[in-house]
Amino acid sequence: MGHKKKKTKRVRTQKIAYRLAVAFMIPVLLMIVLGIVSYEVSAKFIVGQYENLLSEELHAVNSYMGLLCNNVEDKATEIIGNEDVGAYYSKYAGEKTTKARDCATAVSTFLNKIRSTCDYVEGYHILSENGGSISSASSKIDNSVYLDFSKSEEGSTITKGKGIWAGRHSILDDAAGISTDNYALSYIRKLDKGNGYLFIDVDMEMVLEQIQNTKDQGCVSMLITRDGRVLTDSEDLTDDAETLSYLEENTNETSGKSTIRYKGKESLLFYSEIGDTGLILCTIVSKDLVLASANSIKILTLVMVILAGGLATAIGWLLSKGIGHEMNSFSKSMERVAGGDFTTEIRSKHKDEFMLLANSIRQMIDGISEILKKIYGFSNRVNESSRYVAETIDDMAGSMEGINTAVEDIAKGAANQVGNAEDCLQEMSHFSKQLNHTYESAISIDDDSKHMIEAVHYGRAEIKSLNEKADRATEKTKQLVQDITAVADATKDIGGIIETIQAIAAQTNLLSLNASIEAARAGTAGRGFSVVADEIRKLAEESTSAVEQIKLIIHKIQMTTEQTVEGVHDTEQHLVEQSAAMNETVSAFANISSYMEKMTVSLNAMTSNVAGMIESKELVLESIKKIVNLSESAAAATEEVTATINCQLSNVRGLLDDANHLSGEARGLDRSLQKYTFLE
């Protein structure tokens, strides 16, 4: 069967590919955020690790420098506690005696020995109030140097038993011509015996070498003394007055760290005091240097995020294209099926839930196709049966009208006969004159009687034929009832198929629910699959809606079938009543035939006895009265037959209308089914 496809208006929808692409971009954005957070965390971790490393190195150098300072202080204690030094500066200092010279020589020898054995000792100096100052410098020191130093800030803060560490001894340097480039530090302590000061200068190279142990590539290390001297091998720092000023002002604590601007860059400052010497060991490192490895992690993370984002986007796009292609294919196939083309193939290239869905839809379409084929065949049979019934009833109506016409003719003849008999009675006075005329009338009546008998026989034959047609119509009606009942039973089988479809829809919905649960478990990474689950759930809901529409169509078919069965039962009842009326009509015609035969005998007798009638007027009158009575009875009988035939004709027309209505319903059902195309 061919049909014209009805164009349906497409609803503008958002493609699933875009929604899945957006869903896949969410984890990509989260990965970017993760990269940024990872960089921040790693940067903090690296800075912390670097700080710990520098702190450990600074602590190690601090420990070594503390040990060096302790050695120097121990040497100072050894020198001050030496007998020759104590004796010389408590008794012989400033004298020119041999004993004084020998003691001075012993002190010098002792000091030179310490200088030669201790590579960290650059020089020594002893200033005395009474003169006799001894120094490793070549220049002679005047006694006034002692007075100037004792009045200075450093000299006034020194107490016996406790020395100080200084970066410079300017008064002594100026007096003895000592260069500050030769020594880094100087430990100054008062003598225990006599009034004097001991200076032990620490070698510059030794100190700088230790400071460089904390100097990584890009770092600047230094040692800051109590009097503000900064010891470092960095010329940049030496020329950076602003940084030096900041160091002098902000390194008063024993240890710590802070952030400063060095060479226009943000840098980290670590500092630690060496014991209680007042010496501060410092290290400056640029943050860019610390974060160099973090920047490499940043670049690597950025590259990985870009690669992962591109890969996730590509995978999401491919998945969305595959799903969108399958959904578009299903949608177009279902549109063709909705348009009536049940030959549409529904397939899926994916061996997953899409294939199961395609198989279920194909089974549903096959089931509906078989049902519609059966309904179409039944519609054709109903159409043919109703057309045959209508033709039969139409023939029956024609026959009934013929019978009705014949009966009306009989009624008219009987009426004429009654009139003639009455005229005969009125003209009894002229009986003698009209005897010949009466004889001729009797012959005419005899002929009419013969015609009447023939009409009665013809009517009986027609009624018998009509009765047989009514029987056949009754049989056809019973067959029609059986066919309609079979259709009603067939529509009940649709319930099983609908239950199967509902089970499929429920299974699909359960599948969508399971997919939604799994997507929820997967978290943000499963949001893309959650959209797919929603689309599957919508398809299950549409299947359920289609099942409900099929139920409504089947319910309408069942209602139409029940109405048709009731109409056919009424038709059958009308046919039964018509058959009974036909039988009564046949019986009436039999009576009419009997009466007509009797009348013919009477007419024959009247004709043969016309002479006797002339002679016996009373006998003739009596016979005429009997004829009048008989004619009246025949007229009454014909009127009853006419009424019965008219009633049956009305019933037959009603049956014809019902048959035509049934035929129209069948043709309407046939037109409804013609838009569907099935596989042969």
From TrEMBL:
<feature type="transmembrane region" description="Helical">
    <location>
        <begin position="20"/>
        <end position="39"/>
    </location>
</feature>
<feature type="domain" description="Methyl-accepting transducer">
    <location>
        <begin position="392"/>
        <end position="642"/>
    </location>
</feature>
<dbReference type="Pfam" id="PF00015">
    <property type="entry name" value="MCPsignal"/>
</dbReference>
<dbReference type="InterPro" id="IPR003660">
    <property type="entry name" value="HAMP_dom"/>
</dbReference>
<comment type="similarity">
    <text>Belongs to the methyl-accepting chemotaxis (MCP) protein family.</text>
</comment>
<dbReference type="InterPro" id="IPR004089">
    <property type="entry name" value="MCPsignal_dom"/>
</dbReference>
<keyword id="KW-0807">Transducer</keyword>
<protein>
    <recommendedName>
        <fullName>Methyl-accepting chemotaxis protein</fullName>
    </recommendedName>
</protein>
<dbReference type="GO" id="GO:0007165">
    <property type="term" value="P:signal transduction"/>
</dbReference>
<keyword id="KW-0812">Transmembrane</keyword>
<keyword id="KW-0472">Membrane</keyword>
<feature type="domain" description="HAMP">
    <location>
        <begin position="321"/>
        <end position="373"/>
    </location>
</feature>
<dbReference type="GO" id="GO:0016020">
    <property type="term" value="C:membrane"/>
</dbReference>
<keyword id="KW-1133">Transmembrane helix</keyword>
